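Run log, item B.
One chain of 157 residues. Sequence copied directly from the ordering sheet:
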Amino acid sequence: MPNNESANVVTAESRTSGLGRVLITVYLILALAATLRAVYQLISKFDEAPLAYSLSLVSGLVYIVATFALLKRGQGAVWRTLAWSALIFEMAGVLIVGTLSLLVPSLFAHDSVWSYFGSGYLFVPLVLPILGMIWLVRDGARQKLPVEDHDESESLY
């Protein structure tokens, strides 16, 4: 039996199942929806709400980065750092834009993805980064567990 330490560690790929798979799928769907909607709005009616449509494009791009970073999080510290950065930026964006859309609605002629804390997207933009951060913390802890200490039946991932 080879003494290979990486063989005793649960791989990131084996944890991309269950709730982790759902989380990444929701990120992918939101990334596509936000980005495609924003591109259409920027092309067809930019002059109506440039700030809102630009913010929607930014949010879509952040969701794309978050999706890929979450998928590759087990392939090095750079990906985990990128995932954390994207989730923190996303959370800040939702909170800042959500608050501004309530306090200064004149800034937003039309809603962006993050307006009113993502109410146009059933508040998924508000909840998703929180779930993503929880998952990254738990995933990081699980990465360090030896295989024999890991019970797949108890996995939430």
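Observations after the first pass:
- The two ends are 28 Å apart (CA to CA).
- Residues 19-45 form the longest helix (27 residues).
Flagged for discussion on Thursday.
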